[in-house]
Write a structure and sequence with these properties.
four-stranded antiparallel beta sheet; 48% helix; NADH Oxidase; alpha+beta; binds flavin mononucleotide
């Protein structure tokens, strides 16, 4: 039976960012279905610029990336002049998050899919389309995970160290890291963060 309109809206509204997971592995076929649905997101020129890198739990790639990103995060926080205790706590939290998530998926946008333009104005618009398209696959991934009873969170750490991520994971030069998704079966679903009222967001002309 097709779910009702109310059920679809409730499904879309009930996706939450979840940062704590049950110690229960995610079967590969479940994760494959999630990725398979993510690629049905819309994209500019239907160019499908999203690329996914699944970092296997306990795998060498995940360990190497966690260490490299932790070191880079520490350098940034030291440059900010934060107290050592706070730096150590934040770096450790970020590192553990990547090491312990049941699933970690890097989302990248492939610049090689972009149309070339001779002028900066159109190059910029084309680049914006690349990022917008990749982001839609990110949302679709989170919704597909939600449909599986999984939950997860979009994190933006890789955006701050794109060269490092490309180097550690040995990615093609045209792949621009956008986000790291942590997924798993939720330990608990947090209450919904508030939303701005519709009136504040919409203008009717
Ligand atoms: C572009 C983007 C970047 C985000 N970066 C992070 C992040 O680095 N760490 C984190 O814990 N959550 C991150 N989030 C999740 C947001 O905090 C979350 O979506 C927001 O608070 C609303 O909560 P909800 O997803 O449960 O509705 C990010 C979300 C988006 C869309």
């Amino acid at each position: 039976m097709t779910p009702s309109r109310e059920a679809w809206h409730a499904f879309l509204r009930s996706r939450r960012s979840v940062r704590r997971f049950a110690p229960r592995p995610v079967p590969r076929e479940v994760l494959t279905r999630v990725l398979d649905t993510a690629r049905w997101a819309p994209s500019a020129h239907n160019r499908q610029p999203w690329r996914f890198v699944v970092l296997e739990a306990e795998g060498a790639a995940r360990r190497a990336l966690a260490q490299a990103m932790a070191d880079a995060f520490r350098r940034d926080l030291e440059a900010d002049g934060l107290p050592e205790a706070e730096i150590a706590a934040r770096v450790q939290r970020a590192r553990q998050r990547l090491l312990e998530a049941p699933v970690a998926v890097l989302l990248a946008a492939d610049r090689a899919t972009m149309d070339p333009y001779p002028d900066e104005r159109r190059r910029q618009a084309e680049y914006t389309m690349l990022i917008q398209s990749a982001a839609l696959a990110g949302l679709q991934l989170l919704l597909a995970a939600h449909a599986e009873g999984l939950a997860g969170v979009w994190t933006c750490g890789p955006l701050f160290v794109p060269d490092l991520v490309r180097q550690v994971l040995d990615l093609p030069a045209t792949w621009e890291p956008q986000a790291m998704f942590y997924l798993g079966y939720p330990a608990r679903i947090p209450p919904p963060p508030p939303r701005l009222p519709l009136d504040a967001l919409v203008q009717w002309r």
